[in-house]
Design goal:
Order of helices and strands: HEHHEEHEHEHHEHHEHEHEEHHHHH
Strand content: 5-15%
Bound molecules: zinc ion
Number of strands: 10
Length: about 400
C-alpha cells in the first residue's frame, strides 16, 4: 500500500542512529520509521583533558568521587586526570611564577600514596612535568604507577622567559623517546592566544603579560615551530595540541596532513553555549573538518576535578608538605589567579565553582562536583555538528581509548 507521505532517506546529509536504520528491515520492516528522527549518539565520552586540583595529603580517589558521579550522569565515562609531578629542580630556586602553581605538585612518594585505590575509580591519569624538569626517570616512574599520558605546558616557559627550544634539548628528546618506549602520548598546551575570548571565558594576554614583564620576546609561532620539531623528531609519539593549538581549522588542516602523529583536543575552543546554536555556514564547515579529521580530534574539556577550595587552602599544600608550600603565597596566588587560571587554562565557569569552594571553605573531598555546564557546552558543540556515528565515536572516546590502549 503506497503512502501519501513518503519519506526518503538522505543519510549522507542527515545521519541517524544505527538502530533507526536497522528498523528499516528488521522484523520485516515492521517498525520502520519508528523514532525516525533519532540521531547517532556516542556510547560514552572520554575527557582527555582534566586537572586535579585537590590535596596531595590524601588519596585522589576520594576527592574526585563527586566529579566522577557528575561526569557519569553526562555519559562522561572516563577522564584523563592531570597530576603534577615535581622534578629535581622543583623548589630549588624556581620563581613561583606560573599558572600551573595553582595546581598542587606531588613528589614521587606522595604521588604513590595519593594513587591508593585510584584504579578503582575507572579514571586514568596523566603526569605533568614542568619544562624545567626533563627527567625520563620521572616519566618511567609515573608510567610504572599507571600514567598513560605526559602533559606539558608552555605557561611556565612564557611567564619566565624560557626559550621555546628548551623542548629541543637532548634531555627533553630523551623524555619523548621514553614516552615512545612506554607507549605514552603527549598532551601539550603549546601556545596562548593574545586576544580575550568572551564566549569561552578566556582572558587577554594570559601568560604573555607576565612573560613580557620578564623579557619574553618570542611569539606563538616560535612556540608552535618548536613543538612541530618535536612532532617531527618523534614520529612514534602522538602529540595532542591542547586548545587546538589556538589555531584555526584551515591551518590545522594543513598541519594534520603534514604531521601524521599530530592530534588536537576540543578543549575551550570547541564550545557551544547552551542558549546558542551554530550559524549554518559555520556548522557546515566544521562538520566537514570534523569528519575529515575524525581520527585526530579528541574530546577534552580542561575541567577541574577534586577542587579543594584551593584558593583558600594554601594550607592544603603546606600541610601536605609537598611542594606547594615552596611556592610562597600559593594560597593567595591560587585565590587571586583562580579566575586567571580558569580563563587561560580551565575555561569558563570554573571560576564560579572555585569561588564557591573557597568561600565556603568547604569542598575538600567528594562533595565538590564538576562544572557540568562547562562539560555540556563541549558536548553540545560536538552533538550539534550531526556527525555520522563512526566519526562521533572516534572523537568522543575511541581515539583516546586507542591511545591509552584500552
Ligand atoms: Zn589544561
Amino acid at each position: 500500500m503506497g503512502s501519501q507521505m513518503p519519506y526518503g532517506r538522505n543519510e549522507g546529509m542527515y545521519p541517524h542512529g544505527a538502530d533507526v536504520l536497522e528498523r528499516d528491515s528488521s522484523d520485516g520492516g515492521f517498525s520502520r520509521g519508528w523514532a525516525m528522527h533519532c540521531k547517532p549518539i556516542p556510547q560514552r565520552y572520554f575527557d582527555v583533558h582534566t586537572h586535579f586540583c585537590g590535596r596531595t595529603d590524601r588519596p585522589v580517589a576520594g576527592q574526585i568521587r563527586g566529579c566522577g558521579e557528575d561526569a557519569a550522569e553526562l555519559m562522561n565515562a572516563r577522564a584523563m586526570l592531570i597530576l603534577q609531578l615535581r622534578g629535581k629542580k622543583r623548589g630549588a630556586g624556581w620563581p613561583p611564577a606560573s599558572v600551573m602553581d595553582n595546581f598542587p605538585y606531588y613528589g614521587l612518594e606522595s604521588m604513590r600514596a595519593g594513587l591508593e585505590g585510584f584504579e578503582r575509580t575507572g579514571q586514568l591519569w596523566a603526569v605533568h612535568l614542568d619544562c624545567r624538569s626533563p627527567e625520563p626517570e620521572l616519566l618511567r616512574a609515573a608510567a610504572g604507577m599507571g600514567a598513560k599520558c605526559l602533559k606539558l605546558h608552555n605557561a611556565p616557559a612564557i611567564e619566565n622567559n624560557i626559550p621555546p627550544d628548551v623542548w629541543l634539548s637532548r634531555d627533553w628528546q630523551d623524555v619523548f623517546r621514553a614516552a615512545a618506549e612506554l607507549g605514552m602520548f603527549v598532551l601539550f598546551h603549546v601556545t596562548q592566544r593574545l586576544s580575550a575570548s568572551a564566549y569561552t571565558g578566556g582572558g587577554r594576554n594570559s601568560y604573555w603579560e607576565k612573560g613580557w614583564a620578564n623579557g619574553t620576546a618570542y611569539t606563538n609561532e616560535d612556540l608552535l615551530q618548536a613543538f612541530l620539531s618535536c612532532c617531527r623528531a618523534n614520529p612514534d609519539v602522538a602529540f595532542i595540541g591542547a586548545h587546538q593549538l589556538h589555531l584555526g581549522w584551515e591551518r590545522l588542516d594543513g598541519l594534520f596532513a603534514a604531521y601524521p602523529n599530530l592530534c588536537a583536543d576540543t578543549s575551550i575552543g570547541c564550545q557551544l553555549r547552551l542558549c546558542d546554536s551554530f550559524y549554518p555556514h559555520d556548522r557546515e564547515y566544521l562538520r566537514l573538518v570534523f569528519q575529515k579529521w575524525a581520527d585526530r580530534i579528541l574530546f577534552g574539556t580542561d575541567s577541574v576535578w577534586g577542587r579543594s577550595g584551593a584558593g583558600a587552602s594554601g594550607g592544603a599544600g603546606a600541610e601536605a608538605g609537598d611542594g606547594v608550600e615552596t611556592d610562597a603565597g600559593a594560597g593567595a596566588g591560587a585565590d587571586a589567579e583562580a579566575g586567571n587560571g580558569a580563563d587561560a587554562e580551565a575555561g569558563n565557569g570554573v571560576e564560579a565553582s572555585a569561588g564557591a569552594g573557597a568561600d565556603a571553605g568547604a569542598g575538600v573531598g567528594a562533595g565538590v562536583g564538576l562544572d557540568k555546564e562547562h562539560c555540556l557546552r563541549h558536548m553540545r558543540f560536538i552533538s550539534e555538528l550531526d556527525l555520522p556515528e563512526d566519526a562521533l565515536r572516534k572523537i568522543c572516546h575511541e581515539n583516546a581509548e586507542r591511545l591509552c590502549r584500552i
